[in-house]
Amino acid sequence: MQNPGPVIPGAAPGASCFGPAYGFWCILETALRRAKVCNRAPMTLVAREHGIMRLGTDGVGDTEGLWVAEMRSRHSKWIISA
């Protein structure tokens, strides 16, 4: 990871399962943080959902609030309803 750049994880149009996009975000964010290159590899999660971590439903508890807080604390951005 000598010259990382922006990363845009997300679910492809027509995807019926959004969970893997969030899982990939977690794995990649951890790897970038451990390599100490987060500042050179900004991440923007893209989802067609109407909110973060809705998973095609109305959410489970306050998953959206928890994910928004976590992504903000990790300096990630997101685009929803894409």
Q: If you had to describe this structure to a student in words, what would you say it looks like?
A:
There is one protein chain. The model has no long low-confidence stretch (mean pLDDT 82). The chain has a two-stranded parallel sheet. The protein contains 2 helices and 2 strands. Helix content is 33%, strand content 7%. It has one domain. It starts with 18 loop residues before the first helix and ends with a strand. With 82 residues, it is mostly helical.
Strand order of the largest sheet: 1-2
Quaternary state of the chains:
single chain
Q: Radius of gyration, Cα only, in angstroms?
A: 13 Å
Low-confidence stretches: none
Question: What is the average per-residue confidence, as pLDDT, rounded to a whole number?
Answer: 82
Number of H/I helices: 2
Q: Report the structural category.
A: mainly alpha
Helical content stands at 25-40%
First-to-last CA distance: 29 Å
Q: Secondary-structure element sequence? A: HEHE
State the shape. Answer: globular
Question: How is this fold's topology laid out?
Answer:
Layout: H1 19-34, E1 44-46, H2 63-73, E2 77-79
Parallel strand pairs: 1-2
In short:
This protein has 82 residues and is mainly α.
Properties at a glance:
mainly alpha, two-stranded parallel ribbon, 2 strands, single chain, 82 residues
